[in-house]
């Protein structure tokens, strides 16, 4: 199998590369952070012809579309930029995949839902309340209507060890802060399904092997608030959990409210027999991987 990861310099992209590269031909794109390993191409997905031509040239079986403007607040304050990257950029990737009939794997988000239900399954009607959620939902719709085979993987709060150029994540931010003996404020009314990133790659491999298509919730098994997640993380890393300060989201100056959308991964488990780890198991695996 030949795979192209659009947005390979990101945390999810590199872990997918690492998982697939031994048995498959995997190429990656980057925008500003040049990847120091693998077969790489610089690409701005807003450049339509360059995007189409690169996909045509590589002619991959699978294109993992992992490029997005993911800052929820920036998407809200710069809606045009959010639309350009998350919608128009996705259109360009789709156009390339139409030519090569490549299967698209689109990394999406629980923020396509408003969080008013206790739990969401894949066929629940989306209802985003943020511009980020709106643009990611539009990307999903474009892919569903594209006529090419696809997988839409909705995942939440990915975490793992990172490369030096990558943005941090909730686990590593906590570890770095508490190691410096600094106080860290964690929110008690934001809930997520934290997902250990290597599990996303495992799930993708099994979905591709079983020739699955459609939408899947690829998330960890725990629906947990940031403060409780922080307590578990600090305990497993042997750090002082007394440095964690519980706060509520209304004490922060945010551009938009987050929705607490609890994604069910039952469909994933039923279809491929695999469930991403819960918080405790995921962090324990991080510690093993570090050693």
Automatic annotation (TrEMBL):
It comes from the Archaea. Residues 1-289 form the RmlD-like substrate binding domain. InterPro entries: dTDP_dehydrorham_reduct (IPR005913), NAD(P)-bd_dom_sf (IPR036291), RmlD-like-bd (IPR029903). Gene3D superfamilies: NAD(P)-binding Rossmann-like Domain. Coiled coil: none annotated. Transmembrane segments: none annotated. This is RmlD-like substrate binding domain-containing protein. It comes from Nitrosopumilus cobalaminigenes.
């Amino acid at each position: 199998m030949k795979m192209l990861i659009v947005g390979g310099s990101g945390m999810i992209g590199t872990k997918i590369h690492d998982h697939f590269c031994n048995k498959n031909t995997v190429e990656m794109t980057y925008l500003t952070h040049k990847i120091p390993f693998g077969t790489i191409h610089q690409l701005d997905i807003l450049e339509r012809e360059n995007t189409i031509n690169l996909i045509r040239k590589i002619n991959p079986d699978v294109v993992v579309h992992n490029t997005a403007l993911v800052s929820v607040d920036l998407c809200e304050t710069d809606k045009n930029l959010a639309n350009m990257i998350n919608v128009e950029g996705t259109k360009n990737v789709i156009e390339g995949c139409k030519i090569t009939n490549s299967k698209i794997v689109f990394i999406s988000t629980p923020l396509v839902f408003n969080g008013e239900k206790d739990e969401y399954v894949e066929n629940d009607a989306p209802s985003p309340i943020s511009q980020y959620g709106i643009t990611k939902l539009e990307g999903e719709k474009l892919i569903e209507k594209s006529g090419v085979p696809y997988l839409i993987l909705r995942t939440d709060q990915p975490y793992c060890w990172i490369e030096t150029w990558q943005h941090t994540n909730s686990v590593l931010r906590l570890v770095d802060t508490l190691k410096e003996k600094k106080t860290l404020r964690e929110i008690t009314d934001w809930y997520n399904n934290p997902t250990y990133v290597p599990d996303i790659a495992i799930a993708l491999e099994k979905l591709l092997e079983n020739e699955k298509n459609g939408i899947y919730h690829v998330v960890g098994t725990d629906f947990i608030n940031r403060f409780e997640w922080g307590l578990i993380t600090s305990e497993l890393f042997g750090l002082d959990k007394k440095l964690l300060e519980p706060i509520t989201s209304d004490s922060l100056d945010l551009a938009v409210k987050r929705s607490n959308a609890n994604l069910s991964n039952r469909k994933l488990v039923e279809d491929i027999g695999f469930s991403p780890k819960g918080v405790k198991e995921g962090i324990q695996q991080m510690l093993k991987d570090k050693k």
